[in-house]
What does this fold into?
Amino acid sequence: MSLSRSRLACPLRSRATPSRLQAVAAWWALLRAEDGAVIDKEGVDAIVGDLAVLVGSARWQNQGV
It folds into this structure.
């Protein structure tokens, strides 16, 4: 069974707003750039979004985050 990313993300997303997730992604990309790593915006947004889904899933399962 395959769930679309958007269907999975809705109930399991962390409490962060999309604008907050974008701000965190931009901040993280800047930190990585200072270390010499270059990550494209789509890659950073995907990683931070996936992390938000994991956090939301852990909270939904009453797991510590």
